[in-house]
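Q: Sequence in, structure out?
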Amino acid sequence: MRIRATVAALTGTLALSALVVPAAQAVDGPNGPQKLAASVAKADGDNIGDTKITKVTVNGGKDIVVGTTEKKKFTVAVTATDPEGVGAGSAFLWHGPTEDTADGVFTPDNFNGKCTVVNATTSTCTVTVIADPKVIFTNDVAGGGWKVYAAAGGNDGDQATIEDAKSNARVQRAARLTTNASPEPIKKGKTLTVTGALTRANWETSKYAGYTKQSVKLQYKKKGATSYSTLKTITSDTKGNLKTTVKASADGYYRYVFAGTSTTPAVTSTSDFVDVN
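A: Exactly. Output:
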């Protein structure tokens, strides 16, 4: 399975990448060659020495919303400590029950993380990771369940890895929402029909498709008012379409609002102004 092979290759590459800077310094000591050899031999998830990863943050804690064509770039920050300081760090995201059965992976554009010194013993190393909708194999990976493989290297050649740190961000399918109120203009007291559609990215077809059986609020703001009020909640049909009716009362704005789910972000349509006479 290609994903398994990719994850296996990345774990090895990542561990070695994290050791590039520490290794150059480690060989200067009396036990440098032996320590470096041991580190490379054990670059499979085992910790070497007293380097510790203390925190992993994905996209600043915000969800990662991916559409159908554009690549989404986000950061993964790895904070680590070592008595001799930290000189390298990197990470990638993977999805699935185990690495052997992973069904999705997002890799950095450069495995060598940019490290910022916090103090003498601590650094935060950041990589930019790319989520490409063209290589997401299935819609099933949307939502939570993403994990982080993180590695950090101390300035003395020590290393630490975490294979399955929980991501604090979900990967979601981008959503779109529309609103159209008609007829316009309309007489006061007459029936106004408000239609729309809730769609979201389908990564398997690279198109947007209806998000079915979802609760959506119809909101109204009277002309001159500062806030919207909810008129009713309706459910999208089997194609994601929305349709309901209200009595026209005064000039104002109508819009649909979707609260979002674990796999799909919240979205608010552009409002449609209706002239009532």
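Confidence is low (pLDDT under 50) at residues 5-11, 13-44.
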